[in-house]
Design brief:
4 copies of one chain form a homotetramer. In chain A, 74% of the residues lie in helices and 2% in strands. The first copy, chain A, binds a DNA duplex through helix 4.
Chain lengths: 220, 220, 220, 220
DNA sequence: GATGAATGAGCCTTCATTCAT
DNA sequence: GATGAATGAAGGCTCATTCAT
């Protein structure tokens, strides 16, 4: 093979991809489509168009539209879980550092991009009338909640403060979800940095020794 | 209206309702339908069925499906606005009492029924890809936010605490929205009372002199 | 209304028909379509085209294609049953006259038209892999078979001949079905009259006192 | 074929079968598929699945689906023709023995298996709207009919009976086809033995000297 | 006002056919 | 030869919208 052909092979997308690669490509296109035109108006034709593929291929890799959407949600949930799990593993030993890692993880670009947030919102909106979506989200949330509660309980112990770890964890979690929603739906949205600061303001209210609006207090 | 007609109206269920009454009936059916089967699967036929009316009547009162949905959202937003506005007007003079009134208003049965919450979620999910919906929600939120910020600023002044009223107000608002979402989407949801306590836990964190988990502290 | 308009009203098909009338019209179009292009190539669009209606209307009156086809078969079966039942009721008292009535009924234009026969063939071909079709045909056949056996048994008694009524009835029935098939599938088909004579040749073989190739022997 | 190749063929399952063997394998799978799910629902994918081969191979050996089906019908027809031809060649010299051979041939397991009958029914059902299928069946039937008529004419001569050989032959043929159909489509089908007896009851009616319900009378 | 039959655009899905590997 | 990913035409079905009654 001469250089010209070699270059051509490298630059053009291959005609045939492995099953897994195509599935990921289509799921990515689905997220983008939902983010752009919403869940209700998402069609297989549009997903295929975004992916640059024929619409018949979508049904080849995912038997039905229903499955494509379910697996897209599953992929989002799995990506989200992996993100905070890994952040937690990389965190320092103290409860404050671990809480900081979890709060910060939710604002990592990988899970907090506009497209991802829009897709999440759309699925949330549909989930309340779809038990199958609730299950997908629910099991993930459950694990996240439990961890957050444990860490809050630890931090209360460490700081010697009184408080209800379950409710504090809940406030922190819904604050994150809430500023996410704001980032999506407000007409003049504040930016991600301000969103994160807002979360830390909440963290500071419960744990003033550990946090301020900028994040984790330096350990002096 | 003469006596004969008056008698007819009173004794028989009216065959012809006024324009406004029919519109409200259809909007109510729309909310219920969205809550039950979701925004994406809501059809005019189903709305008509829920309302107990004929198929064609929906298009007679609302020219298009788009208008029916938009006006439904408008009605929800207006109802919500009236609810907190009136609660605020009925509240006592102090900042703590007014904040309490606003927090409590969002859990009034009129705006916090399962059907209402589900419908809200559905519209939120769709709003991020529909500018027209964002406007409907946005203008309302804007007024609500401003009031909440004012009250928080007043309360900070009254209690002599330092703090960022804008971010505190934001945390309180998204906490309310967040527990609303939980009430809708969690597999084993806590109840409305626990949701409200969670909000007060957040309020207590910022204003311990004024609130505890049960609500407004008695003014001694 | 002036004469011109009156005439127009009478000649043009009405825009809206009753449910039952439309259903019959669509079933008739289905029979014609199956006869013309076969079961496998029958599409709702083609049925609608033959009926001169929009394809959406087919799904309005019959929820699915499956139901349209099933009800078409049901209508064919009901029409067939009514035809031989009424022929039997109009027949004379003797066994020979009743057998003659049944044999003759199957060649009545109402049930023996080319379109009807083609449609029957198509359903038979599909029935062997469709239990639901078999049931539709089966219950009808059962009643027909029982009657034919009874009459053959009566005729054997009357003529004092030995013979197996069940098998004789079966031969007569399948002979009718067979010449039907011939009328449909042979390249140079003989005509309906020759088909009927063939059946009478079979009848004559079993009951020479009662039949000859032209039909029932005149009672002398 | 040299020794090396022979050994390879015998010891290993051949990875590459000859064209002809693959074609037969696919035709057999087509018959089975049509028998199981019907003509209308037969797809190339299903045929390939039944044959245990890949999807694309079907189009490699038969350019189109149309050709696969046509050649399947051709194979069925050829198999059927060979069956009665060989039976006739093996039969004794008398007309009765030859007629018996033909009647018996149609119930030989090779052509009278459930799968074969189902496939025949399906093709018959479709043939009335497909000239190309009618030709395939027709030419075969024509030869079969002619032979049957000749034999019936011979037998009439031998027995000295009056009768119309053409119509008698037709009754015998359609009786066979009819009991075939019964074997396929009746809810509580009688068995092949009873089907064959029914045919002989018809034969006995025309030729009582030669046949009874059990078959050919022993020549005493 | 009210009804529900009728229309047709657009969607999901199937599947014969093609083709790169 | 053989595989299976990829394409696109066509079909069934849904549903917003229209309109005669």
């Amino acid at each position: 093979m001469n250089d010209a052909k070699l270059a051509e092979t490298e630059t053009r997308p291959p005609r045939k991809l492995s099953r897994e690669a195509r599935r990921e490509q289509l799921i990515e296109a689905t997220i983008e489509t939902i983010a752009r035109i919403g869940y209700a108006r998402t069609t297989l034709t549009e997903v295929a168009r975004v992916a640059g593929l024929s619409h018949g291929l979508v049904n080849f890799h995912f038997e039905t539209k229903e499955r494509l959407l379910t697996e897209t949600l599953l992929a989002l949930a799995e990506e989200y879980r992996r993100n905070w799990t890994e952040a937690l593993e990389a965190a320092g030993p103290g409860a404050a550092a671990r809480l900081d890692a979890m709060l910060r993880a939710d604002f990592a670009p990988a899970v907090c991009s506009p497209g991802r947030l829009s897709a999440w919102c759309a699925f949330w909106g549909e989930a309340q009338s779809r038990p199958i979506y609730q299950e997908q989200c629910g099991s993930n949330d459950l694990a996240y909640n439990r961890r957050l509660e444990e860490i809050c309980a630890d931090l209360l112990r460490e700081t010697g403060r009184a408080g209800d770890a379950e409710r504090i964890a809940r406030v922190l979690r819904v604050t994150i979800e809430g500023v996410w929603l704001d980032l999506m739906t407000m007409n003049a949205p504040y930016d991600r940095d301000e969103a994160q600061r807002t979360v830390y303001v909440a963290a500071e209210a419960f744990f003033p020794e550990a946090f301020n609006a900028d994040g984790l207090r330096s350990q002096t």
